[in-house]
Amino acid sequence: MSRWISPARVVVLLLTTVCLSGIAAAGEMRTGPGHVVSESVLAIWDIDVRSDGKGLPSGQGSVEQGEEIYAGKCAACHGDFGEGVGRVPGLFGGVGSLASETPSRRVGSLWPYAPTLFDYIKRTMPFGDAQSLSDDETWSLTAYVLNMNELWEEDAVLNKDNLPGVQMPNQRGFISEDPRPDVANPRCMRDCKALPNVVTRAVLISNPENQ
Fold first, then answer.
1. Which pLDDT belongs to residue 1?
2. Is the pLDDT reported for residue 22 higher than 70?
3. What is the DSSP annotation of 114-151?
4. pLDDT of 162 over the 90 cut
5. Taking the domains of the chain in order of start, what are their residue ranges?
6. H or E segment at 21?
7. What distance lies between CA 128 and its chain's CA centroid?
8. Cα(49)–Cα(38) distance, rounded to whole angstroms?
9. 158, β-bridge pairs
């Protein structure tokens, strides 16, 4: 008696097999209790970058190179000039808008630390082909997007030594701790106030980024 397997499950199994095969080829593939993960295998997964720049790889990039890469791998979603297409957000503008009724959450207006831009591009872009960019391609795209936001000079080379020093406009817009007092608020068990009856909700739809 044969068992039917959905096409989606077949694709997942194939991708898992290819992924594990690739890791095994890169270094001893040993997992589970009692096995020490080799440095070569760990390096495949250890690609995150901290806000202070720790974890940034070697290499470098330029705005000119980034513009060429952007045109081929990013413009279809983010627009030819980073203005955004459809519901895909733009990449520049919006500085000073976060406290308004129509906040524009973009790289220059929202993100507090420049190294996280490299981290985001490297781990998640291009959409549908994440982690396909080389380090130098990621450096160039980071330089190009920062240049869009007037945060990086067009003729300057970007690398791990100078990226952490880029001051983002919203660097002081986040707090590390909740300033509100820690007041105990046990759940009411008797003689509780009636719950409010919500009859309608207001939704601001004038800004596509809020939808």
1. 47
2. no
3. THHHHHHHHHH-STTSTT-S-HHHHHHHHHHHHHHTT-
4. yes
5. 1-46, 48-175+198-211
6. helix 7-26
7. 14
8. 21
9. 61
The tens digit of pLDDT for each residue in 170-179 reads 999 987 777 7
Model confidence at 189: pLDDT above 80: no
Q: Token match 């791990």: residue? A: 160
Name the class of domain 48-175+198-211.
mainly alpha
Say how far apart CA 50 and CA 103 lie, in whole Å.
Answer: 26
Site of tokens 């981290």: 119
pLDDT value of residue 198: 83
Rounded CA-CA distance 85/48 in Å is 28
Q: Which runs of consecutive H residues, i.e. helices, occur in 37-134?
A: 39-45, 63-73, 75-78, 107-110, 115-124
Burial class (CB in 10 A: 0-12, 13-18, 19+), 78: buried
Radius of gyration of the chain (CA): 23
CA torsion sign for 95, 100, 106, 112 is positive
Which amino acid, residue 91? L
Q: Are 110 and 44 in contact (CB under 8 A)?
A: no
pLDDT at 154 over 80: yes
Query: How would residue 27 be classed by pLDDT, with cut points 50, 70 and 90?
Result: very low
**CB-based contact 160:56 (threshold 8 Å):** yes
Peptide bond into 186 cis (omega under 30): no
AA letter at 99? A
